[in-house]
Amino acid sequence: DIVMTQSPDSLAVSLGERATINCRSSQSLLSSSNNKNYLVWYQQKPGQPPKLLINWASTREAGVPDRFSGSGSGTDFTLTISSLQAEDVAVYYCQQYYSTPGTFGQGTKLEIK
Amino acid sequence: EVQLVQSGAEVKKPGESLKISCKGSGYSFTNYWIGWVRQMPGRGLEWMGIIYPGGSDTRYSPSVQGQVSISADKSTSTAYLQWSSLKASDTAMYYCARPGTPRVADAFDIWGQGTMVTVSS
Q1: Given this model, what pLDDT does residue B106 score?
Q2: A28 close to A75: Cβ distance less than 8 angstroms
Q3: A12 contact B CB<8A
Q4: Integer Cα distance of A24 and A43 in angstroms
Q5: Is the peptide bond before B99 cis (omega within 30 degrees of 0)?
Q6: What CA–CA distance (Å, rounded) separates A4 from A12?
């Protein structure tokens, strides 16, 4: 199985400041056939199912605010929230779907400082 | 509207069997994979397995292989997650989810509301 490791486990950021969450995979998620990274980011708020934010490591889903951005390739990826809003408090997960099982990172809990 | 609607919460005893469901609507059920994701209380997300209703191809995580069974009924557009003998460690929220691309087991962009399963003597 591909192991996904997120850092940090928790993060407290002031409103309006930048939040950065990292995700590392135990093997490359970059496909040589289409040059795409099979990595997504989800946001999960308490009592809700996860919501897909970013696909292909850097493509925002429709309706996701542009303060959310994804970057990285191969084995190292980053989710950045450029200006933290109160509604961004949540747990964020990365997931690879390069191979089954589609493993998740352990999650990063984002709070307001 | 594309939706996945899951069956209601369950409280069971260890050793009992259980089958929970996930009904798809608003799309062609047989054209999309459906996956199951476990979330134990206070813990992260765990990919359990995925099924392609159009061909019955099913894949399991090694961590649950042999412990659960995933199936789908095309006639009712419903996917199932089943246990033959529950354990206390099966206590969790279970989500079904559907990828965004037909016929491809990629990222989950549609999620059910979750089914809470509690196993306690």
Answers
A1: 87
A2: yes
A3: no
A4: 17
A5: no
A6: 22
Sort strands A51-55 and A108-112 into parallel, antiparallel or unpaired.
unpaired
- A102 has a chain B CB within 8 A of its CB: yes
CA distance B14 to chain A (A): 26
Tell if the CB–CB gap between A51 and B44 is shorter than 8 Å: no
| pLDDT per position as a tens digit, A51-109 | 999 999 999 999 999 999 999 999 999 999 999 999 999 999 999 999 999 999 999 99
Q: What is the pLDDT of residues B57-103, one digit of tens each?
A: 999 999 999 999 999 999 999 999 999 999 999 999 999 999 998 88
Is residue A34 within 8 Å of residue A105, measured between CB atoms? no
C-beta contacts of A103-106 below 8 A and 24+ residues apart: A103/A1, A103/A2, A103/A3, A103/A4, A103/B47, A104/A4, A104/B44, A104/B45, A104/B46, A104/B47, A105/A4, A105/A5, A105/A6, A105/A23, A105/B44, A106/A4, A106/A5, A106/A6, A106/A9, A106/B44
How far is the C-alpha of A40 from the C-alpha of B108, rounded, in Å? 9
